[in-house]
Design goal:
Order of helices and strands: EEEHEHHHEHHEEHEEEEHHEEHH
Structural class: alpha/beta
CATH superfamily of the largest domain: Spore Coat Polysaccharide Biosynthesis Protein SpsA, Chain A
CATH architecture of the largest domain: Alpha-Beta Complex
Strand content: 15-25%
Largest sheet: 5 strands, mixed, barrel
Shape: globular
GO biological process, one term: UDP-alpha-D-glucose metabolic process
CATH class of the largest domain: Alpha Beta
Helix content: 25-40%
Number of domains: 2
Number of helices: 11
Oligomer: single chain
Domain Nucleotidyl transferase: 11-271
GO molecular function: UTP:glucose-1-phosphate uridylyltransferase activity
Number of strands: 13
CATH topology of the largest domain: Spore Coat Polysaccharide Biosynthesis Protein SpsA, Chain A
EC number: 2.7.7.9
Organism: Candidatus Portnoybacteria bacterium CG_4_10_14_0_2_um_filter_39_11
């Protein structure tokens, strides 16, 4: 029996401009927006590390230096905290740079979410790998990526994150059509990018979170060659192409999904994480109650 390679590498596309959050993202990457006391990207990385990821590749742009600095050492800050005997803070700051091996790749083309994967091919190599977006994360008993990895180990096939949606959601997400082969696991028959509600019977959305086999690179290159001027390169379309050659599965993820990519959802994430915080949760709840 062929041994299935474990997933150790994670790609995080992080070159977007974050225009929905302007002007705050003019000089600050959207991935660095705080959710309570940590930037959203740190939640993403912590989830990955808890799943067994050891190597994290950020595909970023020229305005993303703060992101790189966050996952690097900061000797001046560490010395300051040590001098004033703030050991707990010192340890938490030092731990950030030690969570994983971090690599940074500059994105060369900015028209579609398929390009970051091609730009990082030389780092990802011929091993299976994971992809998540830098502005959304899950909280649950078992990390999202670990759930996907477990399915991959059983199936030896690409696995994507699935969540139920409604009519309005079909126009926001890629939609998965397929057959449920066991509770929560679907064999994908079709992937449709943001269809109108009447264009599909499925209400199963494809969210961020993928385990991909290296054959995706060939599918992306083929899709790229067929693009018309002005068209974007979508990962979902490359996966639809790959679907004709090998099975792809979708897994319903157990856990709470937080999307910090829009103002309202970012605020919701902050409120819910604050309420769950042992230090300030009760007092914050009382404050919210007093407003109504």
């Amino acid at each position: 029996m062929t041994k299935i390679k474990p997933i150790k590498k994670l790609l995080i596309p992080a070159a977007g401009m974050g225009t929905r959050f302007l002007p705050v993202t003019k000089a600050q990457p959207k991935e660095m927006l705080p959710v309570l006391d940590k930037p959203v990207i740190q939640y993403v990385v912590e989830e990955a590390v808890a799943s067994g990821i050891t190597d994290i590749i950020f595909v970023s742009g020229p305005s993303k230096r703060p992101l790189e600095d966050h996952f690097d050492r900061c000797p001046e800050l560490e010395a300051h905290l040590a001098e004033f005997n703030k050991i707990e803070m010192l340890n938490s700051v030092k731990a950030i740079s030690q969570m994983a091996n971090f690599t940074y790749v500059r994105q060369k083309q900015f028209y579609g979410n398929g390009y970051p994967i091609l730009d990082a091919q030389h780092v990802l190599g011929n091993d299976p790998f994971a992809v998540v977006w830098g502005d959304e994360f899950f909280v649950g008993k078992t990390p999202r990526l670990k759930q996907l990895m477990n399915a991959y180990q059983q199936l030896n096939a690409s696995v994507i994150t699935a969540m139920p949606t409604d009519d309005a959601g079909t126009k926001k997400y890629g939609i998965i059509e397929g057959k449920e082969i066991k509770p929560g696991l679907f064999r994908v028959s079709k992937l449709v990018e943001k269809p109108e509600p009447q264009g599909t019977k499925s209400r199963l959305a494809s969210l961020g979170g993928y385990i991909l086999k290296p054959e995706i690179f060939k599918a992306l290159e083929e899709e790229k060659k067929n693009l018309k001027p002005g068209e974007e390169l979508y990962l979902s379309k490359a996966m639809a192409r790959l679907l004709k050659r090998q099975p792809i599965y979708a897994l319903l993820i157990e856990g709470k999904h937080y999307d910090a990519g829009s103002k309202l959802n970012w605020l919701k994430a902050n409120v819910e994480m604050a309420l769950a915080n042992s230090e300030i949760g009760q007092e914050f709840k009382e404050y919210l109650t007093s407003l109504f």
